[in-house]
Protein: Amino acid permease
Organism: Bacillus amyloliquefaciens
Amino acid sequence: MEKDKQTLKRTMSSRHIMMMALGGAIGAGLFKGSSTAIDEAGPSVLLAYLLGGIILLFIMQGLAEMAVRNKNARTFRDLVQQSLGSYAAYFLDWIYWKMWVLNIAAEAVVAAIFIQYWLPECPIWILALIISIVVTVVNMLSVKLFAETEYWLALIKITVIVIFILCGILLLFFSFGNHTAPGLSHLTNHGGFFPHGAGGVITAMLVVIYSYGGTEIIGVTLAETKNPEKVIPKAVRSTLTRIVAFYLLPFFIIVSLIPWNQVNSVPESPFVIVFKMIGIPGADHIMNAVILLAIISSMNSGLYGSSRVLFTQASDGRVPKVFSKLSKKKVPVYAILTCTSFLYVGVLISLFAGSQTFNYLMGSLGYTVLFIWLIIGFAHLKSRKHAAEQPAYYVKWFPYTTWFAVLALLAILIGVIATTSIVITCITAAIYLLITAAYLVKGRRQ
């Protein structure tokens, strides 16, 4: 009965939402994917991240407007279904869920590898198991504890990125000791600003989109946010400026300080190399710890997002009702435990697949983020047809900004299909076909 229907508790504030979006976006994509993006585009990777940031801005503005207009919305499905129908809503829910369960599975193994730096004798599967249990417990105890944990984890890594930027600027323009400031010479000295031409920028866009993916988790927090019509637009504005700054500035420093064609030739992260250049004692340990926190933070956000999608699916009767059961602290325990189970499946798969696991998953996840943003963009384009009045927050340059984002995403999608491994493309297409088949068999009846 409707009166017995359990609802999530609104306990998250603006600072929680902003840091969660940052936590989802500033993770392995930045620290582990940075070398790949630079290797593919050279210094022109800066343009790739700038373009990605502009697209993200326009998509998130549309998401914020739809959230303000639909005050009773709980997740993406509620924002999209009215504009694009049940199939688009169903498809979005499940590819978003797929994105996060794959992501947390991949990042659990990556986190274990970073811990193994200090504990080389300890097997990866034990470390991954410990990390998975910790993240699960934090998510299950209470929403407020999860939000506070995510807030402080995100704050720590953001602080270190700020220190990295300040140190990088010092190294770029000031000579001292045995260090000679390179200025901006590395941006053009090694094959020019576009060493691989425009194709390099397009190829790097898959890493860029994957890196920025996670910001849209704001759309999953609607049911647990206080005053979402005020908080969501504020969180979108503040989050976007920070994300672009925390990607563009670090990449500018990396490609200016280190010749781009040397970044991928060393096993260390570019961030570790820069900290070593400044002469900070134990730089490798400092950055190893920060990267580990960044990955755990991203896992934290991912488990939250995937479990809430499963909860709303169960609440609407699309999956078994057991996933909609809440604990006394209003936490969807069974949904969290189910999503957590993919951590352990992911650990087994990753151990057998070897070192290429992260690259394969990153490719598939990049496709998924592209489709998520496209669906949000198309939903925003049609949303005003159903609007009775203009909401308090709205996109002033509608529909031009949204159309720019959608057309740019479609162009990137074509470029990515042409330049990405056929294996990644086929696996992703198979997953999408499976979701579509499930809708045709079952979802359409609900």
Summary: Residues 223 and 378 are 23 Å apart (CA to CA). The domain at 11-445 is CATH 1.20.1740.10 (Amino acid/polyamine transporter I). The chain has one domain: 11-445. The two ends are 17 Å apart (CA to CA).
